# Entry
Amino acid sequence: MGSCRLDLLADDRPHHLASRATNPMPTILETAQAAGAFGTLLAAVDAAGLRDALEGPGPFTVFAPIDAAFAALPPGTVQTLVDNPPQLARILKYHVIAGAYHQAQLVEQQDWPSLEGAPIPVRCPDPLEIKNATVLTADLVCSNGVVHVIDRVILPG
Amino acid sequence: MTTTTAAAGTETPLIPPSTHAYADVIHRLEAGGSMLPDTPENLQQIIGIYKAYAVPMDFYWRDLLYIAERIWRGGEKAHPELLEFMAKGETRAMPKLLHHLWHDRVNMEFAEACMQAMFWHQGMGGRFNDYLASEAYRANADRAVKAYFKGNLVMLGLYKLFPEMFIEKVRQLSYTANLGLFWEVMAPVFFEMSDLYDEGQLTSVPAAMDFLVNGIFAVAGRPIYHHVFIAGECIEIIPKSEGFTWLYEAALPYVEAVFYRTSPFRGTKSYNAQADQVPDDQADFHYGILYADVFPVGSAGIPPTLLMQDMLHFLPPYLQELYKQHRRGEEDQLIQLGITFQRSMYNVTSAVIQALRCALLYPLDDSNPEHLKANRSFFEAQMDRFLRPEARLSDIQTQDYR
# Structure
């Protein structure tokens, strides 16, 4: 499931925080890139033409599925979406909330409005479950928002 | 998707058994099965009818898209049995008009009835229907109407007088495109299942259901749109960029509108709305194939009967043989195949239920009891829809129902 990579990601945090004085804090996409566990997500963001939006000031809260989450979808699911950027963008936007929210704030509300339009339910506060995904690592603070790493791709409906 | 701790037998189940009236079916779904029991005859029946359904469906989707888009898509690639039937019908080769008047043809009325069910029920999830009420859609439809009637002063005058009527007609065409794009995908899926069965590669009802579940995911993200070609120009009435998908804007509304709801049939069976035989709430409509009493429905002019007649032309030999062995043999093949169709659609509905469980809930072998309870609640809520006496779920549990 790439958990060692997630450990690295967690270990990266103090480094990022410590180096904030000299280097600007990484953006959401830079954080994902550095983690090494989000190759599919980043490729999907590019295919959907959402890179510029996610590099913007935001702030955004992003639920980032790890590569294993995409791999767990039945064969062909991801490829069909990659072939159809507007449809892919819709699914990716379901993983994004406008505004920067930490775990402590997320659990205070039952539903959060996604950029896709459909609500994202918080089903369990501890361990934090966003719809049918479990948050593996929460509160990765970035210059333009917060990333929460999840173990499943979430789908509207 | 094939195991569950609740059904493992030797292990202690993580959650207690269901007490629902359809507990057996629910436990089967939790074990990765279908609402339809796994028997060799059920498998034979459903695969045979998928094949017999796919041939007219190959006609329906091409014709629906021709109506909606005004372009003909790949007739040369149509199924050979369909092309043969188009040429000769049940009778012999003669001018198309004579075939039409003799009703020796594919009943396109069935496809239109399905489209009308989707159009009429509306609001069954997805964003398609909301878009049809938007200003953007109106502007696109307006361009299409004006382009179509360019130079026709009478029709343009009528459009000025009764714009809503024309826009509503375009909305109906958008649903026509929607259903055409939905079936364009389903027809090859059913053909492939039939081929795999013939090759001995599909060997159980759950395997047939899983094939459909994987198929649903594989095509879920295909675009649903409405383009129309007028005088060489493509007008995007619903552009692909709206992000509408096969799953949310076509498949799920289709299943709801056609398998569950549709509308009371005119014909030999009468409904008295004053005696509450027709629900006040459209969401409670239950005239789809999952509830149909196939015998009275099997009368002239009623939409499912038209489909049954279409499927009769393309039955594989093994189903013809099966029907000869039961009930009144060849005399009541339409009824027998209607009930087979009912079994097959309970299996398709099972695939949709499992796909939704997979997308929105948890794996069947999840180790968290709370997750298994959530799956259980979902399955029970789905089975609640079959508690009304018209539902055929209990009938299809045995092979006697023919």
Q: What stands out?
A: Chain A touches chain B at residues 73-77, 80-81, 83-84, 86-91, 117, 123-124, 131-132, 155-157 (CB under 8 Å). Helices of chain A lie at 3-18, 28-35, 39-47, 51-55, 67-71, 77-83, 85-93, 103-106. Residues 19 and 25 of chain A are 8 Å apart (CA to CA). The first strand of chain A starts at residue 60 and ends at 65.
